[in-house]
Amino acid sequence: MITVLRAGPLTTVQDLGRPGWAHLGVPRSGALDEQALRLANRFVGNPDDTAGLETTLLGCTLRFAEATVVAVTGAVARVDVDGRPVERPHGHQLFEVPAGGVLDVGQAARGVRSYIAVAGGIAVEPVLGSRSTDTLSGLGPERLTDGTVLPIGVPGGAPPLVGEPSRIAGELVLGIRLGPRDDWFDTSGLFASSYDISPLSNRIGARLAGPALTRAHAGELPSEGVVLGSVQVPADGQPIIFLADHPTTGGYPVVGVVGNVTPLAQARPGTTVRFRELD
Amino acid sequence: MKIRRVGAAGLLIECADADRVEDWRAELWRRRETGELRAVEIVPGARTVLLDGVAPGTAELLPEWEPGHGEIRAEGPLVQIPTIFDGDDLESVAGLWDVTADEAVRRLVETPLSVAFSGFAPGFAYLRGLPDAWAVPRLAAPRPRVPAGAVALAGGYAGIYPTASPGGWRLVGRTDQNLFDVRREQPALLTPGTRVHLVAA
């Protein structure tokens, strides 16, 4: 059992989300930096889809009732157990927190989101097959607050594996496949420009600020389904890249789809983003 | 029909009208049931059907799967929604239609509706069937809170709010039906293709 001592600005339970329900208006949700969650789970011997915790910028502080094997991945952040910094043999933190011990994941020095996996996983009740908190629709467990108590599942005992740490870049070059609505725009501007990640970004989307993308023709688009990584361009011409909690349908045209949104999970406001065309 | 690419594993089928959207949606769901189609998501929109998480080569199969007109459509389940027509915007809707409030209610209960697509919130269904001439604009300023169960109109659609949320649709009534319950095997009461009748409660 875990008791939350300091929840931080936004700490949520996340697994790999609930794909397959978009036709009912249910977002996919799930860990924003999916690779980091998978890696943390492998460290502690969990299946990849086990639920862990996702923190935002300032980390969180947790007390463990029982001795627990824990891994922390994702953002570069100081990690302390009972006030002492944790060794980092593989560029990640894998360690045991003793019974009654306090884990503190600190402010991210690089990146945004830390992932905390515990052997056995966070065992809150699943909703539509997932334990993820969906910040758009409100499905799944509430975001953590100070005092939240979280159950831990039974460890599977699989041997811990080591993987590649995620890289956190100062400037992102995102591969994008044009379409489905690239014919609504002059797309040369998309590749000629650089954008900044806006501080208004969240789990729903990474908002970009830069030169407005020019419409090739006006008009309104009837609502249509959108996918993870869709680059939607509202009337003001400032692109939004849809992340895990994105709405299932949208009424603004999607100029293209980013192939891998994982780097955006760790991109801080002000990070420079460029696009390059895939295929 | 035109097929547009959506990222590495998505396809968007553009349809001539909402009837064809429903034809394609039903056909693709059927083909997924039989195992001919692999797709993580089949998401109808107003004029499109989105496939996501499809196997390579799916785009080449689609032209062969073009469904007949209305073959599957008539088979959708029928759900009756007991509705109390006391919405705050019923008078304004009647005004836009240039009829009395009683006549507006009569139109709403006598028009067969069906779920075109979902979105906005889990279980929120865009119901089509109202004639184009009865389309009403959204409110100029959305209400900060619309209660769960509110029956409302906007554009050419009717909809029922599954949960309390902000909203700009015109409220014509309310129902006590539970539109979305994650504990049910089918969490949404109204799924794409479902036929809907509003019934005066």
Automatic annotation (TrEMBL), chain A:
Keywords: ATP-binding, Hydrolase, Nucleotide-binding. GO terms for molecular function: ATP binding; hydrolase activity. Residues 23-279 form the Carboxyltransferase domain. The keyword Protease does not apply. The keyword Cytoplasm does not apply. This is Biotin-dependent carboxylase-like uncharacterized protein. It comes from Actinoplanes italicus. InterPro entries: CT_A_B, Cyclophilin-like_dom_sf, PxpC.
From TrEMBL, chain B:
Residues 1-190 form the Carboxyltransferase domain. Keywords: ATP-binding, Hydrolase, Nucleotide-binding. The keyword 4Fe-4S does not apply. The keyword Zinc does not apply. It holds the Pfam family CT_C_D. One of its GO terms (molecular function) is ATP binding. This is KipI family sensor histidine kinase inhibitor. The lineage of its organism: Bacteria, Bacillati, Actinomycetota, Actinomycetes, Micromonosporales.
